[in-house]
Design brief:
By secondary structure, the protein is mainly alpha-helical.
Length: about 230
């Protein structure tokens, strides 16, 4: 029967998978978004909310790994947490790329619309387009900085996980060595006990023979003195 902890871990894992699939679906919608900017902003708001929910559930899974009694269970959940963090980072990268592609497509469409407009409004529209491009460039720069921070955090978590695995492996190895040493000691003790038991049996046999010899001697002496004619 599964424990309460196992059930919570399973539910958390299912929610992580659900958020991951929802994020991928929204990213695909962003790639296919023809505009306008309002639609793109709506998609981005939704995907940010899903990322926050996914990040919180990954943190919950990491906390559950620390609460495990068994070392093997803790390591399995830590590896799953590490895998989900990498997947989150991959989704964020795909989100940035989808945003860039969508914004470039919208900007290209806006440029084509500008070419179709009259000369009087061309200058004003070009200025707006330049401002949009500057804003897009700023967003891309911010996205790259965010990815860089996430990669640094991922490296730190990977180092912690590797350190935990090394420590756990060393502990298991030391425990196995102690078990082997105890097994050798027990085996040696068993041999000594058997040896002492055999020696005790031999001693008893020798005592019995000596006693028998003594009694025989006493009987012989008594016979010679009391019944010399026999």
């Amino acid at each position: 029967m599964a424990s309460s902890s196992d059930v919570h871990v399973r539910i958390c894992g299912q929610e992580i998978i659900k958020y991951d699939l929802e994020i991928k679906a929204i990213i695909q919608d962003i790639r296919e978004c023809p505009g306008p900017q309002a639609s793109l902003l709506e998609f981005n708001a939704r995907v940010k909310e899903k990322f926050n929910q996914l990040r919180h559930r990954i943190q919950d899974l990491e906390q559950m790994s620390r609460e495990q009694d068994k070392e093997t269970d803790r390591l399995v959940i830590q590896l799953e947490t590490e895998s989900q963090r990498k997947q989150l980072l991959s989704n964020q990268t795909a989100w940035r790329k989808a945003n860039l592609a969508c914004k470039l497509a919208i900007d290209s469409l806006e440029k084509e619309e500008l070419l179709d407009q009259g000369a009087s409004g061309t200058t004003r529209q070009r200025k707006a387009t330049k401002e949009s491009l500057v804003h897009t460039s700023s967003d891309i720069t911010e996205s790259l900085m965010s990815i860089s921070r996430m990669m640094a955090e991922q490296v730190h978590h990977s180092e912690d996980t590797v350190g935990s695995l090394v420590t756990s492996s060393k502990t298991v190895q030391e425990t196995n060595e102690e078990f082997r040493s105890m097994t050798g000691t027990i085996h040696l003790g068993r041999k000594l006990i058997l040896k002492y038991n055999r020696r005790e049996l031999t001693d008893k046999l020798l005592i019995f023979l000596a006693l028998a010899l003594f009694l025989a001697t006493v009987l012989y002496i008594l016979k010679k003195r009391l019944f010399p004619f026999l």
